[in-house]
Automatic annotation (TrEMBL):
Superkingdom: Bacteria
Segments traversing the membrane: none
Molecular function via GO: DNA-binding transcription factor activity; transcription cis-regulatory region binding
Keyword annotations of the record: DNA-binding, Transcription, Transcription regulation
InterPro entries hit by this protein: HTH_LacI (IPR000843), Lambda_DNA-bd_dom_sf (IPR010982), Peripla_BP/Lac1_sug-bd_dom (IPR001761), Peripla_BP_I (IPR028082)
Pfam families: LacI, Peripla_BP_1
Secreted in keyword set: no
Protein name: LacI family transcriptional regulator
PANTHER family hit by this protein: LACI-RELATED TRANSCRIPTIONAL REPRESSOR (PTHR30146), NTD BIOSYNTHESIS OPERON REGULATOR NTDR (PTHR30146:SF136)
Domain HTH lacI-type: 2-56
Length: 337
């Protein structure tokens, strides 16, 4: 961590001059002030007196990094976190990254500069080796998204196993031509795709790489991919999606094309958001424990802040459920859970 001596060396000034700048001494030229400010910024230096004061002063604020607020999954996750935070007289600072690496790094600075007491990441865009050093400045928790090699606590669901079970359900309905949609290149998306692949290989079904669609996030993406699928020479008869929003978009597009769900194409979602019960046919999906994810992440964070526990790696795996509805079952076999 940089010291006042490092700032003085970088600025080409004496330590006494740097000290006068930090203490707003009147007899310092603007040029020297500029040199000191530039040196401080390049070294990411926080004055010792300020750092000491801030370390002893709680903000009672937790920063939550989310990629987008328009995805209901993150809205419900935030609501669960806020319930626990409110009970403990804490407030949330919601930081929407919009999948921007730079915005994510800017928000991480809140922890380094002690503007928040802790930080929870529900997803991340940068390489983990760029993010983890910030955990030295305060407690950090990963919720939903995860990193395999980290000292940061993780609260998550087994995405690999859930995706395997979801894909196996489609195979059990007699499907052998099964497409898959997933998000970006995160560990979560990789594990979902790996679970899908395992189910196919285990059943002796070849994986068709051109039936795997990446960067699919919302209803409009679902509509687009469904239209692409139906235009294939040998179209899949089922789709395992990584989102109820995507699955809902697919059902809408299938109807617009005059296709029957599930007879022409079966569709399974992920999350069990309210839209899964609103669309027609009702959506088979993987129910994520969204409320428990949010509550547990906040409880872990509060333990670190309130009891000043040392932040050590721990991984809490929460259960999931396969919820079978009409979008994957013929009317004669349909059941609703």
């Amino acid at each position: 961590m940089a010291t006042i001596a490092d700032v003085a060396k970088r600025a080409g000034l004496s330590r006494a001059t740097v000290s006068r700048v930090l203490n707003n001494h009147p007899n310092v030229t603007e040029d020297k002030k500029r040199l000191v400010r530039e040196a401080m910024e390049s070294l990411k230096y926080v004055p010792n007196t300020t750092a000491q004061r801030l370390r002893n002063q709680r903000t009672d604020t937790i920063a939550i990094l989310v990629p987008v607020l328009t995805n209901p999954f993150f809205a419900y996750l935030l609501e669960a976190m806020d319930m626990v935070a409110t009970k403990n007289h804490l407030q949330l600072l919601i930081c929407q990254t919009r999948y921007s690496k730079q915005k994510e790094m800017d928000f991480l600075e809140l922890l380094r500069t002690k503007q928040v007491d802790g930080l929870i990441l529900t997803s991340y865009e940068n390489e983990w080796k760029k993010i983890e050093p910030y955990s030295a400045f305060g407690p950090m928790v990963l919720c939903n998204e995860y990193e395999r090699n980290t000292k940061v606590p993780i609260i998550r669901m087994d995405q690999f196993e859930a995706s395997y079970i979801g894909t196996r359900h489609l195979i059990e309905q007699g499907h052998i031509r099964i497409a898959c949609t997933c998000g970006d290149k995160s560990n979560l998306a990789k594990d979902r795709q790996a679970g899908y692949r395992k189910a196919l290989v285990e059943a002796g079904i070849s994986v068709q790489e051109d039936w795997i669609f990446s960067n699919v996030f919302d209803i409009e993406d679902g509509k687009r991919v469904l239209r692409t699928i139906m235009n294939l020479k040998e179209a899949p008869t089922a789709v395992f999606t990584g989102s109820d929003q995507v699955a809902a978009g697919m059902i809408m597009a299938a109807k617009a094309l005059g296709k029957n769900v599930p007879d022409d194409i079966a569709i399974i979602g992920f999350d069990d958001q309210p839209i899964a019960r609103v669309v027609e046919p009702a959506l088979t999906t993987i129910r994520q424990p969204i409320e428990e994810l949010g509550k547990t992440a906040m409880e872990v964070m509060i333990d670190f802040i309130a009891f000043k526990k040392e932040v050590n790696h721990q991984e809490i795996l929460l259960p999931y459920d396969l919820v079978i509805r009409d979008s994957t079952m013929s009317k004669l076999k349909s059941i609703s859970i």
